[in-house]
Amino acid sequence: MPDAAYRPPYVPADILTPDRDITHAHFRPGDQVVIIKGVAGRDLWGDAMSVVTPSWHTPTDEDGWRLRNPSGGDRTYLTAHPRYLVHLSRHCPDCLIHLRALEDYLLPKLSPTTTPADCGWYTLTALNQLVHITDQGRR
């Protein structure tokens, strides 16, 4: 995964992830997942992480997952809502359908880049809770 990303001049809204219907039980400890953050070249890219343990996702007031970033750094661990996650470690039809829908919707709207483009769909709270911009204030 690339280290640096820039913000593209036009950022389409990620309208698919906020309405994704995926349960907490869909994931389990040890799963390898990705959180799609933008585009690199003609592909979507994001942060690859490992699912560690259940954790309350405060921004949405729902069950979430504690994740571990293998790159470490200031944000080695964070909590995310299941709808933000896409399986990497196993062939998962639900995650593949979501990923394909994101590709079909977002890639035509984003110009291919040589530098990874972070579309800014996510922020982190002071408690290391990852929150999609549409989930801010949803409680």
Explained architecture:
- With 139 residues, this protein is mainly beta.
- It is 10% helix and 36% strand.
- Strands 1, 2, 3, 4, 5 and 6 form a 6-stranded antiparallel β-sheet that branches. A two-stranded antiparallel ribbon has the order 7-8.
- The relative contact order is 0.28.
Secondary structure elements and pairings:
Layout (H helix, E strand, L loop, with lengths): L31 E10 L1 E15 L4 E7 L8 E4 L5 E2 L5 H14 L6 E6 L3 E3 L5 E3 L7
Antiparallel strand pairs: 1-2, 1-5, 1-6, 2-3, 3-4, 7-8
Mean of residue pLDDT values: 88
Strands, total number = 8
Series of secondary-structure elements, N-terminal to C-terminal: EEEEEHEEE
Q: Approximately how much beta-strand content do the residues carry?
A: 35-45%
Rg on CA atoms, Å: 14 Å
How far is the first residue's CA from the last residue's CA?
32 Å
